[in-house]
Fold this protein.
Amino acid sequence: MSGKKDKYNPFLVKGFDKDILFCDREKETEQLLNNALNGKDTILVSPRKYGKTGLIFHLFDYIERTNKDFETIYVDLLYTRSLADFIKALGDALVKLPEHTSFGQRIAQFFKQLRPILSFDSLTGDPQVSFTYQTEADKENTLAGILEFINNQPKPVLIALDEFQQVAEYPERMEAMLRGHIQNLHNLHFIFSGSRQALMTEMFMSPKRPIFSQTSLMTLDKIPADKYSAFIKRLFIESNISITDEALTYILEWTRRHTFYTQSLCNKLYSFNPETIDIEVVKKACVDVLEQSESAFMQYRELLTSIQWKMLIAIAKEGEVTQINSGGFLQKYGISGTTSSRRTIKTLIEKELVLALPNKKQTVYQVYDVFFSHWLAREF
Ligand SMILES: Nc1ncnc2c1ncn2[C@@H]1O[C@H](COP(=O)(O)OP(=O)(O)OP(=O)(O)O)[C@@H](O)[C@H]1O
Ligand SMILES: [Mg+2]
C-alpha cells in the first residue's frame, strides 16, 4: 500500500474544488475575464457535462484569488419556470454571499428594505428568500430594483446566469424584459451559460427574437488530449500510482474526452487503489462503471418507443454517425421509413439522448451519454 487510502479522490465528478484538481481551461478563463473587463457579456455554450459550470466557478475563484476586479454572483436557473422563479434564484444567490464582506453587508441591508421572507433550506441550511407580489408589475419592479441595486455597487459585478436556456420557456417575455434592463446597467456584466446550443444562439442572434448588444459567443470545446492526459497522469502520480501511456490513451478514447465521463472513469480507477494502471485495469473500470448504471439504462427502454430504442442501439453500435438518414445506415439496422426515422432522431435529440454536433462539413450524431452508448453497443 502506498498510503493513498487516506487521500480524497482527486477526480471530481461534480462542481469545482480547487485549481490543482481542475484541468486546463486557461484560454477560456482568460477570454471570459477579458470580455468582462471590456464590458462585453458572454454567451457560453457546450453540450452537457463538458464543464461550463466548472469553468464559471474556476473563473470566479481566480477573480477571488487575484486582483478581484469584480464582485461575482452565480445563479442557477435549472429549476426555474417563470419570472418569479428567476427573481427567487437571483435573490437566493445574493443572500448566499458571505455577510462578512462589504458587498454581503450591503446585500443584507438591501433585503431588509425589500422585506422578503427569509428562510433556511432544511437540508443544506442555505438562506433562501421568497417574495410576495400583488400584481404582475410588482415582479418586474422587484427585478428592476434588485438589478439596480447590483448595478450601484462600487465595484463592477459579474453575474453568471447558468442554464439560461430555461428563460425561453417562461410564460413572460423575459428576454425582452432583460434586454430593457441590461442596456442601462453599465456596471453589470453577464455570462449566459447553457447547453442547448441552437436555442441559445437563436435567443441571442435571431432577428425574430430580442438581440442583446455586445455579446460574444464562446463555444466550449473538449479539453485537448495532451493537456488532459498530462493532468490525469499527474493526479495519479501524486498518489504514487503509475499509469501507462496506452492506458491514458484508452481512457481518453473510450470516454470520448467528454469531461464528466473521463472524470468518472478516472474516479473509479482511483477507487481501485491500484499500484499501477495498465489497459487491463482500465477495462475492468469500464465494465464497473457500466454495471453501476445498468438499472438506470434499462429504465430508458420503458420510456422509449421501439423505433427510438432501435435507433439508439444503431447509433451506439456505430459510435458516431454522419449519414443518419441514409438508406445504408437505416437498412443495416432494420429501420424502415425515412420520415419516421427523421422524426425519431428529432425526438431523441430533444430528449437529450442523442447529441448532434455540427462541424464545418457535417453533423455528427452520437448517443449523448457516453456510458449508455458503450452499454448499448455491448448488450444488443
Ligand atoms: N477542467 C476540468 N477539469 C477537471 N474536471 C472538470 C473540468 N471541468 C469540469 N469538470 C468536471 O466535469 C463534470 C462536468 O462539468 P460541469 O458540471 O461543469 O459541466 P456543464 O457543462 O456545466 O454540464 P451541464 O450542461 O450538464 O450543466 C463535473 O464533474 C466537473 O467536476
Ligand atoms: Mg452546468
